[in-house]
Amino acid sequence: MIKLKTDAEIAMMKASGEVASRAMLAVAEKIRPGVSTAELDKVAYHIITRNGAVPSFKGYRGFPGSICASVNEEVVHGIPGSRRLEEGDIISIDMGAVLNGFHSDMARTFAVGAVDSETQRLMDVTKSSFFEGLKGFTEDNRLMEISRRIQETAESAGFSVVRDLVGHGIGRDLHESPDVPNFVLKGPNPRLNVGLVLAIEPMINAGKAAVEWCEDGWTVVTADGKPSAHYENTVALTGNGLVILTDSHI
């Protein structure tokens, strides 16, 4: 069941999104060759908890980190640990915060030092596909209009869209209905109404769309070993239009 939010609830979610955004900015400032993903996780935990919130991911279904830290061919759900970043890597940071009982969720892909032009283009197109998809998030539109716009943006640039993972509704629960595919498929296609809050999150691969799960049960990687990028914001549809609840400028 889709749970529409009141203006007051959206305001609380915006406060949660502001905490996640502060943590994302702090993590971004620490990304450099030689830093470990565990160190980045500690930064996020410190900022989130210092602001009176709780990391959405830590302990969720047993996940051990405050962030997902996914490097290069890792699409999502990378577990923070001893791995140290190297020049030319890319890293996707996915995180959320719970404040006043409401979740936020956001993800960004960052370059570690200088990256090659094709990898930079992958990151740029992934971000662009989010904002193109956002144009479809309007009252009385259908959900698949968001999906269509994301898919067309990514595929027209020569990249592929992950089929095994999707965005989602969000609120008091981290994952709520509806699912938000980044591609068009036959299935539920609800009308978009005021009060709907979504975590829209294109996951775009440089190579083929196929992915695999690693032995840790969490980390998802591209089947062909090519890099993947991820971009996500929590977005609310209000009577005054769209409001991005997580900082889109990071």
List keywords for this structure.
single chain; 250 residues; alpha+beta; Creatine Amidinohydrolase; 4-stranded antiparallel beta sheet; 4 helices; 28% helix; 26% strand
Summarize this entry quickly.
This protein is of the alpha+beta class.
Furnish the topology, listing elements before pairings.
Blueprint: H1 7-30, H2 37-50, E1 54-55, E2 67-71, E3 74-76, E4 90-99, E5 102-111, H3 117-134, H4 143-156, E6 160-161, E7 167-169, E8 176-180, E9 197-200, E10 203-205, E11 211-213, E12 220-222, E13 228-230, E14 233-238, E15 241-244
Antiparallel strand pairs: 1-4, 2-4, 3-12, 4-5, 6-10, 7-8, 7-9, 9-14, 10-13, 11-12, 14-15
Helix pairs in contact: 1-2, 3-4
What does this structure look like?
The structure is a single chain. It is built from four helices and 15 strands. With 250 residues, it is of the alpha+beta class. It has one domain (7-244): Creatine Amidinohydrolase (Alpha-Beta Complex), CATH 3.90.230.10.
